[in-house]
């Protein structure tokens, strides 16, 4: 079943259950926010990663990935100059359909992707993924390059898979692959392998970027 959503293309990936703050300053996205605020709750739009192109500027977006995440607007703080500071949260994945480029901002027909309900099968991958993730965090801390505020990892497979996907230091295409994984079990399996590889690399390097692992990706736009 298709539904129409305004799109907010970004150079990042949003996962369901994760928080995404946004600073909105471009005219087209100011218009999108004004339209959202004029509509009844829940106020939703689609966050989708840019495959080719840029978030800002006249060149714009030339290609998008096929899977994105529905974002629900939770807070909007307007500024006198017309900018907005937003707090949004990811709610569900979607598959991109036909994109309408004739309006001030992109609008698309999208198909929502249901989450796999076979929690028992997915739960098989939870202990190994949790252990791999804690090993990865330990390696980051040992490098002195991380601020870690993850106290209790979820036991629920889908949520755990999204927490790990958000927190890992990986490239956008890898993060997009995790978003597009068919189910939590497949996502956890890919994450476990990525975590093992990244942890081994951390232990053999002298420096790494300094991430802030609080499940909250931030993208100014």
Structural features, described:
This protein folds into 2 domains: 2-114, LON domain-like (Archaeosine Trna-guanine Transglycosylase, Chain: A, domain 4); 119-213, no CATH class. It is an alpha/beta fold and 221 residues long. Helix 3 packs parallel to helix 6 (184-202) and helix 4 (157-167) packs parallel to helix 6 (184-202). The radius of gyration is 18 Å and the shape is globular. The protein has helices spanning 27-37, 119-123, 126-142, 157-167, 172-179, 184-202, and strands spanning 2-10, 19-24, 44-53, 61-64, 67-78, 84-100, 107-113, 147-148, 212-213, 219-220. Strand 5 and strand 6 (84-100) form a beta hairpin. Residues 210-219 have low confidence and may be disordered. Strands 1-3-5-6-7 form a 5-stranded mixed barrel.
Unreliable runs: 210-219
SSE class: alpha/beta
Using the alpha-carbon principal axes, give the shape: globular
Query: If helices are DSSP runs of H or I spanning 4 or more residues, what is the number of helices?
Result: 6
* Biggest sheet overview: 5 strands, mixed, barrel
CATH topology of the largest domain: Archaeosine Trna-guanine Transglycosylase, Chain: A, domain 4
Q: Supply the CATH superfamily name of the largest domain.
A: LON domain-like
* Share of helix, binned: 25-40%
In what range is the share of β-strand residues? 25-35%
